[in-house]
Amino acid sequence: MKFLEYTPLDRLNDFLSHANFGERTIKGCLEAYSCKHTGTDKKLSISLEHEILDYLGKSSDTDSSSPADYLLSRSSRKTLIYLVLTLYHMYPDYDFSSMRAHQFFTEESWDSFKQIFDTYMFELSKEWVVRNGGNSLLEALYKALDEVVRLSECEIYSYNPDCHVDPFLEKGSIWSFNFFFYNRKLKCVVSFRFCCVSNLVADGFLVGDACYNDDGEIFDDMDM
């Protein structure tokens, strides 16, 4: 995996880097990666493949709708491995090989992403219009993503790990979302993480431990 620089993403990142709304800050970051193996990627890919196959071998779930069924396809496993490798490159000091259960990916649609974005980023969207006028923040995001990974050809995934082992989670986090836009043909993936952080907690005025636990089986709701 190799980090790719794109001007359309840089412009959005400049805006998303820090938007202070008094007691809270909303921010986001877009990063693009090629899916060509570099460095230790091949070794990690083999290790992750073995981990998935080991899980499939031990699975006793006979439900035909089991999320494990999707991983019987090599292409689905390959997609998952690319997504995990992207996480490795974003957070090289974190061991994602120990991921379990709800720490994996759920396939999304543009509509489901848009609903989350419109709900949680409406304040930042209004600020974008004030500063830039013209198109909305979502329209600017769509245009930038489309230029980099051709959204019509993309698979969209959300990443929802347990908060105790979430490398994305910041001190004072109120909410956070992590999405990946993956184009098989281009062998390229764009990550988009956005969150809201309490300035009172982040600055040490309040003690906060915002952590939400979700129970589930490994690869819950994942549809590769």
TrEMBL record:
Domain of life, per lineage: Eukaryota
InterPro entries (UniProt xref): Maf1 (IPR015257), Maf1_sf (IPR038564)
Gene3D superfamilies, per the entry: Repressor of RNA polymerase III transcription Maf1
Pfam families noted in UniProt: Maf1
Chief location bin: nucleus
Coiled coil: none
GO BP field: negative regulation of transcription by RNA polymerase III
Location(s) in or outside the cell: Nucleus
Protein name, as recorded: Repressor of RNA polymerase III transcription
